[in-house]
Amino acid sequence: MEKYNFETLSTLLGQTLRTRVDDTEVEVEILDVARTATHGDKWDAFALYLKHQNDDVMFNQGIYEFSHPELGTAQLFVSPNSHEELEIIFSRRIQPQSEQ
């Protein structure tokens, strides 16, 4: 999960992640990675936007396991913005140097 971070995902625009919806394997394209309003000194926060082109698949809001050759696998909470576009919000508390 640590590899699924803003810096790494930003370098993978246009690449795909794989997941499953029911019994169907689906590839989703990384469209954009954008900082969110809560990002700052205490929080690393960003949104990951994905797109799929499989008309036979309907994503529901929920947790899906995604995989990528460089990133490995991670279970991520997905919110569909439309039939094709998905959004995943990451919000991690930044640990002060003294606590690491």
From TrEMBL:
Residue ranges annotated for the DUF6916 domain, each copy included: 5-88
Native species: Vibrio navarrensis
Superkingdom classification of source: Bacteria
Name the record gives this protein: DUF6916 domain-containing protein
Pfam family, one: DUF6916
InterPro entries: DUF6916
